[in-house]
Design goal:
By secondary structure, this protein is α/β, with parallel strands linked by helices. The chain contains 11 helices and 8 strands. The chain is elongated. The two termini are 33 Å apart. The model has no long low-confidence stretch (mean pLDDT 94).
């Protein structure tokens, strides 16, 4: 039977290989109010790169073993090329009765992890994006059926860091393209809109503010209404109006096709790497 750690039992967290996404997770966890910085320990080969977080009260060390032994939730957040070596190093410190292992490592499957650390271990793969630092991530999660209760414990934590969706493991890769890389695509769209704003008369900082808030409003309308985006588009388009004229120009220039192809290409690139 699975040894289940409830959220109340997850008192300390170790983030192993705390690069940009690992640090973003730590910041989100504290911003959400679930954890204090002192409850989170981050490791990195060069701990000087985490000095700013140490100054903020987080635990910082180069000793993975020390971090793991004092935590219940272990977040592995290294690059794919480093995963095999790291897992071989830390496997003797992992205990399925004491730990839940969470992996953000792109392209590394649960089966791959189990082949190194052993089976029967509660492993949850997640794919957040860097907006997790402000509790606005879209995070996809996957785990084996026998570890569904451990995944629920993890999900409840990440529910406070944005929105979550439980998916089949084979969709974690596509989620990397849509939610991870997708964050950059939407930011590029905001930048493009702000450049258009500057061309029609706004100062650059004003145009970015207007574009970013308009993008936030569009996303919020979609999430709150739970309607297809075209339903909201229809509300602001009128016969021979300026909005439909702009929308048609976007389509003539291939906006939708470019966004679709960017997401598909990113997913294909991930698949070709692993």
């Amino acid at each position: 039977m699975e040894n289940i750690l409830t959220n109340n039992q997850i008192k300390k967290i170790a983030i192993i290989g705390a690069g940009k996404i690992g640090q973003a997770i730590a910041n989100g966890m504290t911003k959400s109010g679930q954890y204090l910085p002192s409850q989170i320990t981050m490791t990195r080969k060069d701990s000087s790169m985490l000095t700013h977080l140490q100054n903020a009260g987080y635990g910082v060390t180069i000793d993975n073993s020390k971090a793991i032994k004092s935590a219940q939730l272990i977040v592995v957040s290294v690059g794919p090329q480093d995963a095999k070596n790291l897992l071989n190093v830390i496997k003797t410190d992992l205990d399925p009765k004491m730990h839940i292992l969470v992996s953000t490592v792109a392209g590394v499957t649960i089966e791959f992890i189990e082949n190194i650390i052993g089976t029967g271990f509660p492993i949850v793969r997640i794919m957040p994006n860097t907006a997790i630092s402000i509790c606005e991530s879209m995070t996809c999660l996957a785990a084996k059926d026998e570890h569904s209760e451990s995944m629920e414990s993890v999900k409840r934590i990440f529910d406070q860091l944005g929105l979550t969706l439980v998916v089949k493991e084979e969709l974690i890769g596509p989620a990397t393209a849509l939610c991870g890389s997708g964050l950059a695509f939407f930011l590029r769209a905001v930048r493009a809109a702000s450049q258009g704003g500057t061309e029609i008369g706004f100062h650059a900082e004003e145009a970015i503010l207007l574009a970013a808030q308009t993008a936030r409003g569009a996303a919020s309308l979609t999430l709150e209404s739970k309607m297809h985006p075209e339903s909201e588009i229809d509300k602001v388009t009128t016969p021979k109006g300026i909005t439909i004229s702009g929308l048609n120009e976007m389509e003539h220039q291939g906006f939708s096709s470019a966004m679709i192809r960017a997401i598909v290409r990113s997913a294909e690139k991930l698949g070709s790497i692993f």
